Amino acid sequence: MGAARTSTRRRVAVPWLVLGLWIAVLALASPFASKLADVQRDRAVDYLPASADSTQVASIEDRLPGGEATEMVVVYHRDGGLTAGDRATAAEQIDRIAGAHRLTGEPEGIPSRDGTTLMYPVASTEPGQDEEARDALVGDVRDIARGDDGLSVDVGGPGALATDASEVYNSLDGPLLYTTAAVVALLLILIYRSPFLWLVPLAVAGIADYLSMGVAYGLNQGFGTSVSGQSSGIMTILVFGAGTDYALLLVSRYREELRRIERPYDAMVAALKGCGPAVLASSGTVAAGLLCLLAADLNSSRGMGPLGTVGVLCALAAMLTLLPAILVLLGRRVFWPLVPRYGSTPKARRSLFTAMGGSAGRRPLTVLAAGAVLLGALALGVLNLPGSLKQEDSFTSKPDAVTAMETLARAYPERGTQPISVITPHDRAEATLASIRDTRGVDSAREGRTGDGWTEISVLATAPPQSAGESATIEALRDKLDGSYVGGPSAEQIDLKDTNARDRLVVVPIVLLSVLLVLVALLRSLVAPLILVAAVVAVWGAALGIAGLVFGPLFGFEGTDPGLGLLSFVFLVALGVDYGIFLMHRMREECLNGVEPASAALTALRTTGGVIASAGLVLAATFAVLTSMPLVQLVELGFVIAVGVLLDTFLVRTYLVTSASVALGRKVWWPGPLSRAPDGPRPPVPPKEPEPVAVSVP
What we know:
Layout: H1 2-33, H2 44-47, H3 53-63, E1 70-77, H4 84-100, E2 110-111, E3 117-124, H5 131-144, E4 152-156, H6 157-170, H7 173-192, H8 199-223, H9 229-260, H10 264-291, H11 299-330, H12 352-362, H13 364-379, H14 400-411, E5 420-425, H15 429-437, E6 442-451, E7 454-461, H16 468-480, E8 485-487, H17 489-523, H18 527-550, H19 564-592, H20 597-624, H21 632-664
Antiparallel strand pairs: 1-3, 1-4, 2-3, 5-7, 5-8, 6-7
C-alpha cells in the first residue's frame, strides 16, 4: 500500500518538478538571451581569420589617428547629363556633410567622361568600429544628399554597403522566427490532426530557442565565439527543425504506449526508454558533425559549429524533459479527437512505405542502380553553378548602396571606384607608394594617415570593383609588396573565397571521419555506417546539382556564396545521418529479435517510414523558410539543405538504403556478430509496430 502511494506521488510530483526546473532555467537565461543581437557582427572582415591580409589591414587602420574609417561614395546622376544646377546642388550638399561630420580630407568631385555622373568619395573616422554610429553616419549622409527633378543621388561605398547589410541582418530575427513557427505549426496540425496537440511541441521548441540564445550569448562572452546573423538564424532553424523531429518520434511512441499502459506517466517512461536511445544517438551525431566546424579558419563557419550544437542540444533537452512533463500533466485529452484509449488498437491503414519497401525488396539491385544513376545525373548540375557571389549581388532586392555601385560601374568603366587599402611600414612608405604606382592595373595611389609605425595608402585600380582585373591587381600588389598588407572590400572577398576553399579541404574529411566513427560505435558494424555516409554524400552532390540547374536560370542569381559547399555539406551529412540512425537502429533491433536482415529492413521502413517522412518534411520546411529571406546566401543555403533533406527522406532512406540492406543481407552488419548466421534456430520475437504517423506526401 505504501509503495503504491509513493509511486502515485512520484507520478504527480516529477512532471511538476521538471516544469519548475525549466521555469528557473529560463529565468536565469532571460537576461542573456535578449543581449544576443548586441554581439552579432556581420562585417566581411569579422568573418575572416586574424591571419588574413584584410583582417590585418582593418586591425591596423583602427590604430591609426581617428581609428577605422567609414568610406562612402556619394553618386549624383542624371540620364541626359548633369546640369550646372546639379553640380551646384552636389557641392552644397557635400559642404553640409563636411560641416556636420569630421571627414578625413576634403572631398573632391570626380566627373564621368560622359558627363552624366559625379562622384564624391567621402570618409569619416567618427564611428570607428561602432556599428550603430556607422549606421547613424550613413543615414545622416543619405538624409543630406538628396536628389529631385530627375537628379538621382545614391550613397554607396563600403560603409554604406555594410550599413545596408546590417539593416537586413537585424531585420531577420523577427520574420525568421515567426515564419518558422508558422510553418512548423501548419505541418504539425496536418500531421497530428488535433486542434491542441500541435501547440505543445511548438511551444517547447520556442522555449528551447530562447534558452539557446542565452547559451549562445554566454559562449560569446566566455569563449569569444563569433556570432553572425547567419549563424544565429541557423541556430533558430535547427532548434525548431531538429526539436520538432525529436518531438514527432517521442509523441508517436507515447501514443503507442498509451494503448497498452493505463497511466500516462508510466506510458511516457516506456516511450522514453524505447525511443530515447535513438534520439540521443542522432542528436549526438548531429552535434559531432557541427562541432567539426571548429576546425575552420573562417570565423563565421567556426562560430556556426558551437551555435548549431547549442541549438540541437537545447532542443534535445527540452524535448526529452519539458515536453514529456507537459504531455503527462495534460493526459490523454491532449490527443483529442484521436484519443488513444487504453487497450485499444490503431486502425489499420494502407501504408505508403509498405509499398515502397515492397518494390525495393523485389528488385533491390535494380532499384539501387537506378537511384545511384539518378543521383549521379543530378550531381552533374554542379558544373552549372554560377561563380563566386559579389557583394552587390548579395541582396534579393537592391539597396541604395548597390544602386550606387551599378551607376558607378556604368559611368566609370575605365577606372575603379572602390579603394584598395594598403598598409605599409612608415619608414618604407615612399618606396611602397612608388612600387604601387608602377604596378600594372593601378590607376592612382595616394598616401593617407600615418601612426603606430604604419602608413595607409589608398589605391584605385583601372578595373571595376570585384572584377577579374581588379582581383589580378590585388594579387599582384600582395606578391610585390613584401611586409605590407593589402585589404579593402574587394580584398576581403578574395580572402573569404580562399579561406572557404581551405576550410573545405580540412573540415570535410574530419566531418566524414567523426560521423563514421560515431555510427560504427552505435551500429556495431562497418558496412552499415559506410552505406549511410555514402548515401548522405550522394544526397549533397545531387542537391548542389539541382541548385546549379535553378540558381542562375530560374532564380537569377549572379553568383554562389563561397561558403555554400562547406555549410551545406556539414548540415546535410549531420542531419541526413540523423534519419539514417532512426531507420538502422530499428533494423538492428529487429535483427536482434531474430528477424532475417531482409525482412528486418522492410519492417524498419514500414514502422519508421511515417515518422521519418514527417520529420523530413518539417526539417525541409524549416530550412525552406530561409528562401524567403532578403539575402542571397541564406536563400541558397536554405534551398540546398531543404532539397537535400527531401531527397534523403523520400529517395535515399526509403529506396536506396533499404535496397542496399536487402541486397547485402547479413553482410550489412559486418564485422559485428549480427553478420554471422545464428548457431541454431531462434524463434523470432514479433516486432512491436508503433502507430503510423499520418502524413501528407506530395
